[in-house]
Specification:
Elements lengths: L1 H32 L8 H7 L5 E2 L7 H12 L2 H13 L1 H28 L6 H10 L4 H34 L6 H15 L6 H28 L15 H14 L6 H6 L7 H27 L14 H35 L3 H4 E2 L1 H24 L3 H28 L8 H34 L15
Antiparallel strand pairs: 1-2
Helix pairs in contact: 3-9, 3-12, 3-13, 4-5, 4-10, 4-12, 5-12, 5-16, 6-7, 6-16, 7-8, 7-13, 7-15, 7-16, 8-13, 8-15, 9-12, 9-13, 10-16, 10-17, 13-15, 16-17
């Protein structure tokens, strides 16, 4: 018995040694894969916890709160351009495109969650692409390029929200004030609401945002159904049109589902990140339903001359004012969410592994406010420089959303499962789906950029940096 025990012990020792060696290898691999700007580790946080200042809890969102934040972020600018998209491409092609882009964006959202589950330290696209870049010695370069590309995209979207804000204010005030003045006022409003450093309170504001855009769309639907205020009211099932108009329509549909640049950051503030699929399902069901309802009904009743943003389709100025007034929360809060994610990335780059990252210190407070004001000022420059709503959305989508929402998720999956692409039928189907994601992102980027630049260059209706009203007549 004693010999048997000795033998057993002798056999266990090398096994344990091998396991320990493997664990060390795994730890080394994890350390190698972690981005240079990953969040502080538990050990680092325990050291920082001894510093002065109130500790900030970033894990504040339940799955339904996260879903509401995502709805508020997504169902804002996109829904306002979709009726004019149907007027451009025709009713049936428009519906098909909305459904296809909805499916692709849902699947890509699941892929992003799978990637973050594999690499929990990922907080943004810069971190995610750095993980891949390390395998070819380009990790730091990829972090810089894609991290700042994410911020640039979000600042462009913030510019779109400021542009929509000026349209709203001009509509409400009968264009009594210079448009640039309204842009400055908007800058102040958006910036102040971005001063909190977590999404906890934004999640509550997002409920008001969701209600406001839903009510505004329903009011627009009711008004146009009664009065058919603009155009002949005729509809076209399909249309033949040139390349620029067709692909600009595609990019405007894609931008309606393009909130993916914020997904990593929002997941990072979930109490239970494993609940992400619930939040994503809530988002996609809500936005696809609202998009189809608004796009089809407004286009059918208004006809080919439906304006963009579509909230200006109401018959009377009084009704337009009421609708735009109700839409203010969604215009503002959705922009604030993008501003939060952009500011958070910049802040983390400045204060990584310091007490200022996790505590409310005087320096961190001043720095956060300065970053917020700075990015909103930059977004105002963009809004006033490209004052054409659809063309600005198309340019944003072509440059950035094409990759964050479609191209990069496809690359992430192909990289995670390299060597196992065809191990069974299900995996092969996923391989095909992710190749389609990549190709979708690539085509939207190249062709959409061409179409958007051409559209902006030939636009004659508006001029940049002008006091003239941009509201519908």
């Amino acid at each position: 018995m004693g010999n048997a025990a000795d033998v057993s012990d002798n056999q266990a020792t090398p096994d344990m040694s091998a396991a320990q060696k493997q664990a060390k290898k795994d730890d080394a691999a994890a350390e190698e894969a972690a981005p240079a700007y990953a969040p502080a580790t538990t050990e680092e946080n325990s050291v920082l916890a001894g510093e002065d200042g109130e500790l900030i809890d970033y894990k504040t969102l339940t799955w339904w709160q996260g879903g509401i934040v995502l709805i508020a972020e997504t169902v804002s600018l996109g829904i306002l351009s979709l009726p004019s998209v149907l007027a451009t491409v025709g009713l049936v092609p428009g519906i098909v495109l909305i459904l296809v882009m909805s499916f692709l964006s849902t699947y890509s959202g699941l892929v992003l969650a799978e990637f973050r589950n594999e690499y929990p330290f990922v907080q943004n696209f810069g971190d995610a692409v750095e993980v891949i870049g390390k395998s070819i010695g380009m990790g730091a370069v990829f972090q810089e390029v894609f991290g700042w590309a994410q911020v640039t995209f979000q600042v462009f979207v913030m510019g779109s929200h400021l542009l929509t804000w000026t349209i709203c204010m001009n509509t409400l005030t009968n264009s009594s004030t210079c448009t640039i003045v309204w842009a400055v006022v908007g800058l102040a409003v958006f910036a102040v609401l971005n001063f909190p450093r977590t999404l906890k309170y934004t999640s509550y504001m997002s409920m008001a945002s969701c209600l406001s855009i839903t009510l505004a769309v329903l009011m627009t639907l009711g008004d146009v159904a009664v009065s058919r205020p603009i155009g002949s009211g005729s509809i076209e099932v399909g249309r033949q049109l040139g390349f620029t108009g067709a692909f600009l329509a595609v990019t405007n549909i894609a931008i309606a589902f393009s909130s993916h640049s914020c997904f990593f950051s929002v997941i990072g503030e979930f109490k239970k990140p494993e609940d992400w699929p619930k939040a994503l399902a809530l988002l996609q069901i809500a936005d696809t339903t609202l998009y189809l309802l608004a796009a089809i009904c407004i286009y059918v009743f208004v006809g080919p001359d439906v304006p963009s943003p579509a909230l200006s389709a109401a018959a009377s100025k009084t009704m337009r004012k009421a609708i735009w007034g109700i839409a203010i929360p969604t215009i503002v809060i959705a922009g604030v969410i993008y501003g939060h994610v952009a500011a958070k990335y910049i802040f983390s780059r400045l204060f990584r592994n310091t007490k200022h990252m996790i505590r409310r210190t005087k320096l961190s407070g001043i720095a956060w406010i300065a970053i917020v004001v700075g990015i909103w000022a930059l977004s105002m420059v963009i809004a006033e420089s490209i004052p054409v709503f659809n063309s600005l959305l198309g340019l944003i989508c072509a440059l950035f959303a094409s990759w964050f929402s479609y191209g990069l998720p496809g690359i992430f999956w192909l990289w995670m499962h390299y060597g196992n692409w065809f191990k069974d039928g299900r995996q092969t189907c996923k391989f095909v789906a992710n190749v389609c994601l990549f190709l979708t992102g690539f085509l939207i980027c190249v062709l959409g950029l061409w179409a958007s630049i051409e559209a902006i260059a030939t636009e004659k209706a508006t001029k940049p940096w002008t006091c003239a009203s941009n509201a519908a007549p």
